[in-house]
Amino acid sequence: MKDATSTVPARDSIKLPPLERTMFEPRSMISALLSTITWVASVLACIPLFSVLIMLLYRGGSRLRLEVFTSLPPTAFEIGGGFGNAIIGTLLMVGIGALISVPLGIFSAVFLSELNPASRISEVARFCAKTLTGLPSILAGVFAYAAVVLVTGSYSAPAGGIALSLLMIPTVVLTAEEAMKMVPKRMKEAAIGMGCTPTQVIWKVVFPTAMPGMITGVMLAVARAAGETAPLLFTALFSDYWLFQGGELALMEPTASLAVLIYNFSGMPFENQIELAWVASLVLVLMVLVINILSRLIGQKRVA
């Protein structure tokens, strides 16, 4: 009887395939080609962004001084001036829009993701939110004009804030809903097993876990609203004065904003106003860029 081990070939006689991958293999060549295409596409996608930033830094950076943040817009033949009231007006109207859209959007997301996600009402609300993401901003301005400006009889900061909130709500709703859906189901079940009510599960488990994602959505909505011009032309118009007039906050008066100031000054035949338009563009882009970077950092923290 032959030994069973004698039929097993020696280890040295077995030819194993090489473990090192060479660049001439088909899979390696395809991987290198796709990686190169991805890098080239990424670089091409960044060219418009960096070209805009370089142009703004070149045209607006030379005029960027403290004066532009503390002065009022100049008249036709004045030299100097600034747009401090436009910065305050932009922050005020975006803040009003956030105060309206963030609570409404988050509570709507709670209903869509936690309370009744499969109902007909949820399906209709989700479809409407997705449709509103593509709503032309000028239509939001027309709606706010008819609903607020015509009723109050004046262009105002609240009218501009309401118009911006219409553009912010869909982004807040959809991003908050997705963030809540990403909360692990076992965490909710564990809380329910410990005797928590649905309200306690939402406040103690869902909200803290999904908070970074919700904040990211809010910042993206704020970044979009800060650069809108058309809605403010119909609702807030523009003003050459500070919001504080006679020691009081003039909310129900026309309010300046950076986007409208850029729109107005860029078409004037005066070099001073054109330079201020470039500076205002630089300031607005930097504001939006900072908000987007913060949203990315918060999103990465959420993933980690």
What does this protein look like?
- The protein has 304 residues and is an all-alpha fold.
- It has one domain: MetI-like fold.
- It has 11 helices and 2 strands; from the N terminus they run H-H-H-H-H-H-H-H-H-E-E-H-H.
- It has a two-stranded antiparallel sheet.
- The protein is flat and about 90 Å long.
Give the topology, please:
Elements: H1 26-60, H2 66-70, H3 84-115, H4 120-132, H5 137-152, H6 157-181, H7 185-193, H8 198-226, H9 230-235, E1 244-245, E2 248-249, H10 258-265, H11 271-303
Antiparallel strand pairs: 1-2
Concise account of the structure shown:
The chain has 304 residues and is mostly helical.
Q: What is the CATH fold-level name?
A: MetI-like fold
| SSE pattern | HHHHHHHHHEEHH
User: What would you say the CATH architecture is?
Assistant: Orthogonal Bundle
Question: End-to-end span in angstroms?
Answer: 63 Å
**Total helical segments:** 11
| Rg on CA atoms, Å | 28 Å
> Proportion of β residues?
under 5%
Q: Domains counted in the coordinates: how many?
A: 1
Give the CATH superfamily: MetI-like
Instruction: Report mean pLDDT, rounded to a whole number.
Output: 85
The CATH class:
Mainly Alpha
The residue fraction in helices comes out at 55-70%
Which structural category do the helix and sheet elements fall into? mainly alpha
Low-confidence stretches: none
Total strand segments: 2
Q: Within the largest sheet, what's the order of strands?
A: 1-2
Biggest sheet architecture: 2 strands, antiparallel
User: How would you sum up the global shape?
Assistant: flat
